[in-house]
């Protein structure tokens, strides 16, 4: 399924943004907007303004805690799943579930301006040493290491493919060291996203993302999660929070401990049983 790119939201007249969103609603019925934390604040304000003025519970705004290349991977997975027999609510809430299965990070030439992840003073000091490079895992668990022979980062415990996007940094560490250590079953190159320099604080970057590439596995993963009906807007969803009206299920609100479906909150749909090929490779929970 093609993606509709909402460009220049922070510079175009409001009526143009409203008209573009209304066209998408008229054509598709529901819209899931996936955007990066690196976009200008004016873009985020415009999105919320458009949703408010249209008074529509058919627009879901989702800003996951992923760097730009990981976000691009998630958007592509949602486009793949949009061709399946999934309801809008399940597809929209699947985004949060699929985020758990994406490992994303970068090789950086400097961490002096990296403010989206915790960086120690010692690492900041080392980044001033000429030739220093740092391996950074942004998701699912932030981690930073200084490059040295044999150094790597903790990766997924299930079969994945890897996407690599090169900026102004010269190194083969991602392809020659990290990809084999993560047992990547496929390796592809992509263009560095426009928001990457802003997100990582430097143009000296090689960004990478590891993900589940098989549509059948994604579908089975999503549909294996119990589906609920939103008590407020009546849409079908997975997890305990509706991505369209933001209502939380009464059962989740009444529970003091962590919900058994927390890991699946805001997920996409997949089949009820995991593929035998990947059964032993999917992470627990």
Task: Describe the fold and architecture.
With 285 residues, the chain is an alpha+beta fold. It folds into 2 domains: 14-101 and 215-264, no CATH class; 103-211, Hypothetical Protein Tm841, Chain: A,domain 3 (2-Layer Sandwich). The protein has 9 helices and 10 strands. The strands form 3 sheets. Strands 5-4-3-8-6-7 form a 6-stranded mixed β-sheet, sandwiched between helices. A two-stranded parallel sheet has the order 1-2. It has a two-stranded antiparallel ribbon with strand order 9-10. The longest helix is centred in the first third of the chain and has 15 residues, at 14-28. The two termini are 29 Å apart.
Radius of gyration: 20 Å
- Count the beta strands: 10
Which whole number gives the mean pLDDT? Answer: 84
Count of separate DSSP helical elements: 9
- Low-pLDDT parts are 254-285
Strand content: 15-25%
The best one-word shape is globular
The main β sheet shows up as: 6 strands, mixed
Task: Name the helicity range.
Answer: 25-40%
Helix/strand class: alpha+beta
The tally of domains stands at 2
